[in-house]
Amino acid sequence: EVQLVESGGGLVQPGGSLRLSCIVSGFAFSASDMTWVRQAPGKGLEWVSSLSRRSTVTYSADSVKGRFTVSRDNAKNTLYLQMNNLKTEDTAVYYCSTGWGPSTKYRGQGTQVTVSS
């Protein structure tokens, strides 16, 4: 059974930082590109960032460039998203998913990130 479990979300003030983690099991993590997407209240799914299996190629949405950094530890089957200088518009549920891009086969249950003063 494929499982993706996100953690690290929470409430943070504007300008603050959070680090999200996603632990993957039952899946060939080291052989797969991985993706972070998010969904803000009342909005559709937004592609945030992707990382190739060997961390050689990345994608970041314009809205998070220079603030968010995706990384992975293949030995730990874990994907990360370091989020700095958070803005209120970053408030969303964040999901990790397998593959490259927003339309992927497996996705976790999500972790809530709320940016508010």
Which key terms come to mind for this protein?
117 residues; four-stranded antiparallel sheet; six-stranded mixed sheet; single chain; mainly beta
- Provide the low-confidence segments as ranges: none
Bulk shape: globular
Lateral strand order in the biggest sheet = 2-10-9-4-5-6
> In which range does the helix fraction lie?
under 10%
Overall mean pLDDT stands at: 96
Strand content: over 45%
Structural class: mainly beta
Q: Helical region count?
A: 0
Q: Main sheet, how many strands, which sense, barrel?
A: 6 strands, mixed
Rg value: 13 Å
β-strand number: 10
Spatial gap, N to C terminus: 40 Å
Task: Give an account of the 3D structure.
The termini are far apart. The mean pLDDT is 96. The strands form 2 sheets. A 6-stranded mixed β-sheet has the order 2-10-9-4-5-6, with no helix packed on it. Strands 1-3-8-7 form a 4-stranded antiparallel β-sheet, with no helix packed on it. The protein is built from no helices and 10 strands. The relative contact order is 0.32. The protein is mainly beta and 117 residues long. Helix content is 0%, strand content 48%.
What's this entry about, in short?
With 117 residues, the chain is mainly β. The protein has no helices and ten strands. Helix content is 0%, strand content 48%.
Topology:
Elements: E1 3-7, E2 10-12, E3 18-25, E4 34-39, E5 45-51, E6 58-60, E7 68-73, E8 78-83, E9 92-98, E10 111-115
Parallel strand pairs: 2-10
Antiparallel strand pairs: 1-3, 3-8, 4-5, 4-9, 5-6, 7-8, 9-10
